[in-house]
Design a protein that fits this description.
Chain lengths: 78, 78, 78, 78, 78, 78
């Protein structure tokens, strides 16, 4: 990730589902900010995708990011 | 999980219990978003369902998702 | 846990102590939602009840559930 | 811990420091709710008090409990 | 830590930076509340300061404490 | 990190992306506050950047810091 990369234009999404997708994206981008080599990330990905403890930890990051996004969207209430 | 799959139509539920069920669903879908192969997920499931540390970590994800859902529903206050 | 089981009727409790008890119940029910076999759960219980890392992780789940319950009850302010 | 034990009468404290003390108490009581044998708890205590990973995890539980208590007290603002 | 020690007079700080410093202090005091022997703490410190997993876990405690402090200070908005 | 170092002047940022960058910075500074030797930090960095469990844990710290920053900025709503 270049420091100049912009991956978060807005926290506002049209639907809850898009909010979930954004939460997943933010979680991934955080990992990309620390491990900047895409080749290493690719190799690492196969590690955690078959390790349940790490899958659950990833789900936790997504849940925390989603809290922020859901609040920003006032829970998509009409 | 296909990127086009829509599993979260709304955060609003009729009852607290439905809110819990949704929290569990969201936690599961996050794992599905990372490990997209249903066969591998099935195999992995038997791993964590008998590992108490992972069961507790899963319960934590559910608790965080439920925070968001409960707030969205204003705690189901009448 | 049967999908039709209703273990959360309301987040509202009369006292803070009942709120704590509900938080503990919710944490346990999450584990029950993943590991549905009561015999296995019983056997697993002896594992984590003597493992301090897991006891602490369980306490964390309870703390998160209690945040939600306390907020729902407006902190039991008179 | 007997189910009938009442260890949380109120979330309101006079000072921030009393709020911290209550957070520590709540974290301990959660562990007591799962591991009910005081003799085993005593023995386990020496385990985690010299294990930095577990000390840090305990500090995290205290931080979460304190969030709830601080909010309940409106951050002890005059 | 003596039970009578007062290390948190107020959550209010003049600047965001002082809020960070307070978050770090609170995290440390929690560990001090569990492991009360300063000699053991000193020895343990060298353990976790070179263990990245524990450094990251410590950073998480600081982040949670800071949430509380930032909110108490209304994010230091003018 | 010298105790007198000021790395957080304000929680307010112009854009969500700058908020993300600040969250990453705060997470890093917390580690710097505990492990003060830059040489050791550099060496440790290579450890966690290739360890997926630690990358995920780092992403979680960033997510928590971002919650605070996003709230401080009222989610950058116009």
């Amino acid at each position: 990730m270049q420091p100049s990369e912009i991956y978060l234009e807005s926290l506002i999404t049209s639907t809850p589902q898009e909010g979930r997708n954004l939460a997943i994206k933010l979680a991934r981008k955080s990992i990309g900010a620390i491990q900047t080599d895409p080749e290493i990330r690719k190799k690492l990905r196969s590690d955690y995708a078959e390790d349940t403890a790490q899958l659950i930890a990833s789900a936790q990051v997504i849940a925390i990011e989603f809290q922020t996004i859901a609040k920003a969207n006032n829970y998509w209430k009409p």
